[in-house]
Design a protein that fits this description.
Length: about 240
């Protein structure tokens, strides 16, 4: 049986909802408290300055009563094996995944989350790498990982920071939806869940629901794109 507990955030900040991770504070605290977590293992590899990123992440977790320890200050393999919970922050998805491969952490994280039930929290790039692959990231490939296949904690892709084309826009270029549909023209592509800013995907075992303050848009090959509202049960995507 799959034991996963995931909280995948589209973004770390949302306009009008306070600072870093504040809009998702209740959901983050709930998943950690429900699992008796005292220390969260932070993976800052999506950004270059790990110390600066750690200082940013420490503030909200400390306020909520949790200690945070960064993997970059420890032996990475040992840190994953001993982690009570894992949080991977945003930044550049290609840099993040490349580092996870270089440190041989992809399979280790997958095993701990899917087989041992270690809670996993991802934001932006951290949500991208939680999925089947990073094909639908918005980031520039500033570095190149050995594969675009990711942690595979869910069997579909996510597009964080999903944006609709504004009404009456004079923009004549392609939209985010255009890009996702281009991806799905490829024979080995998968379902894509576009998460708007402030949208969150919560997964427990084989159940999945949209949480947060905004919904998303779902792209299944061969079907019309579908609006997904907050509170929607999308467990069928896990089958």
């Amino acid at each position: 049986m799959v034991k996963r507990q995931l909280l995948l955030l589209s973004s770390s900040r949302v306009h009008g909802y306070g600072g870093f991770l504040e809009y998702a504070s209740n959901d983050i605290c709930n998943i950690l408290t429900d699992n008796n977590v005292s220390t969260v293992l932070f993976i800052p590899y999506a950004k270059r300055n790990h110390e600066e990123y750690l200082r940013l992440a420490e503030k909200p977790f400390k306020k909520w009563g949790f200690h945070i320890a960064s993997i970059h200050t420890q032996d990475p393999q040992k840190a994953i094996q001993e982690a009570e919970a894992i949080f991977i922050g945003g930044g550049n998805t290609f840099r993040l995944l490349k580092t996870l491969y270089e440190l041989d952490l992809v399979k280790a994280i997958n095993k701990r989350v899917l087989e041992e039930g270690v809670p996993y929290i991802g934001s932006s790039a951290g949500s991208n790498v939680a999925t089947r692959s990073i094909h639908t990231t918005n980031d520039m490939p500033i570095v190149w990982p050995p594969s675009l296949s990711a942690l595979n904690l869910v069997p579909f892709c996510i597009n964080p920071h999903f944006q609709d084309n504004p009404e009456n826009s004079t923009h004549m270029g392609e939209t985010r939806e255009d890009r996702i549909l281009d991806y799905q023209e490829e024979p080995d592509s998968s379902t894509v869940l576009g998460l708007r800013e402030g949208a969150t995907l919560y997964v427990k075992d084989n159940q999945a629901v949209i949480k947060g303050i905004h919904g998303g848009r779902l792209y299944i090959r061969g079907a019309e794109p579908k609006e997904i509202k907050v509170g929607s049960d999308i467990s069928y995507l896990l089958q």
